[in-house]
Design a protein that fits this description.
Elements: H1 5-33, E1 41-43, E2 49-51, H2 52-68, E3 72-75, E4 88-96, H3 98-102, E5 109-116, E6 119-126, E7 131-135, E8 140-142, E9 145-146, E10 160-164, H4 168-177, E11 187-189, H5 195-203, E12 208-212, H6 216-229, E13 232-234, H7 243-247, E14 253-257, H8 259-269
Parallel strand pairs: 3-4, 10-11, 10-12
Antiparallel strand pairs: 1-2, 4-5, 5-6, 6-7, 7-8, 8-9, 12-14, 13-14
């Protein structure tokens, strides 16, 4: 009997979870047992740090997917090899936060997600803090338990904004010309990662995140898990983002957060208040 789509989604959810757990354990062991002065590093493009740990994690994840599925894979480490020939595919960021990871910090993670038309599932692991979150078609699971958030935040002026921007020249340019709206927050945090602060937002420790020029492989898990909890994933104008937006035509900004805060921020950015 052929599998129906719900069965496929359940299987792919398990693949996502198994992938981040196995690769995450390997990354954590590598981080604990290696001298980071000797960690091989290079830039695949300007401000795009890669280490041998990224590639090792990528290999583990791809092998798990290949052994369990025949779907195409969009990975940060091999983006140029991806062709969108089907609406069903995996997204992989094998090490989101290479800079903190390579400096022996714990603010890094990894994510694997699966998209099938208008359905998606995903998983995120942050091994440095021993936490993981994933979703199937019906529920979200935080550290293995069904997660039902009850989130409240103070007024925006008392909130902390997570702002992620690569390259010092972009920070300088954007603060000069485009970021007057950050004045509405008390504090700005940056983690050099998408999934680590993304998990903090899902847990309610942070309200919202703005990321400059980010593609789907970095945030697929956030989009999938967030959607099931009611979080918003949009561009700077408040438009919901589809997979092709984040593959072929990456928007300037990816805004991810809880609905009330998200609406307030979008209105501020676009001078609607």
């Amino acid at each position: 009997m052929p599998k129906v789509r719900g069965d496929i989604i359940k299987l792919e959810s398990e693949i996502c979870l198994n992938s981040v757990n196995e690769a995450g354990n390997e990354l954590l062991n590598f981080q604990k047992n290696n001298n980071f002065k000797n960690l091989e590093k290079w830039n695949k493009f300007e401000a795009g740090l890669v280490t041998q740990a990224d590639l090792k994690s990528d290999k583990i994840i791809k092998e798990i997917i290949k052994n369990s599925s025949n779907h195409n894979v969009l990975s940060e480490e091999s983006r140029e090899e991806f062709n969108l020939i089907s609406e069903e595919f995996f997204c992989v960021d094998p090490l989101c936060g290479t800079v903190p990871y390579s400096n022996n910090l714990n603010s890094w993670g990894l994510t694997v997600s699966f998209f099938s038309g208008d359905k998606s599932v995903g998983a995120i692991a942050c091994p440095g803090i021993d936490e993981s979150i994933y979703c199937d078609e019906d529920n979200v699971y935080l550290n293995g338990e069904i997660y039902k958030p009850n989130i409240e935040f103070p007024e925006m002026i008392d909130m902390t904004l997570c702002l992620e921007i690569e390259q010092g020249k972009n920070w300088s340019k954007l603060f000069q010309n485009e970021l007057s709206w950050v004045n509405n927050f008390s504090y700005i945090n940056s983690f050099a990662s998408a999934v680590f602060p993304g998990l903090q937002i899902i847990k309610g420790n942070l309200p919202i995140m703005a990321i400059y020029k980010i593609s789907l492989e970095h945030v697929g898990g956030l989009i999938s898990i967030g959607e099931k909890l009611g979080l918003k994933s949009t561009d700077i104008f408040g438009n919901d983002l589809k997979t092709d937006n984040l593959i072929n035509d990456v928007p300037d900004w990816f805004i991810f957060g809880w609905p009330k805060v998200h609406e307030e921020l979008i209105n501020l950015i676009n001078n609607k208040e």
